[in-house]
Predict the structure.
Amino acid sequence: LTHVSKTLQIEVRGQHFAPNQFHFLAKTDLKMTDFDITPPTAGLGLIKVRDKITVNLDIYAKVEE
């Protein structure tokens, strides 16, 4: 949206739960203002969105041979 990118280090937990199958979980908080995004408002400013957003990652992967 704003052409701002950042490199982040996020701790990812992984689990090998079946032959060739993995599950990865991660969670991180970001601030919209760090990416030059102004948190939106509505209702003439009566409704405001907080600057912080939480990103949850939940991936299942299967390695095929």
Observations:
- Residues 32 and 38 are 7 Å apart (CA to CA).
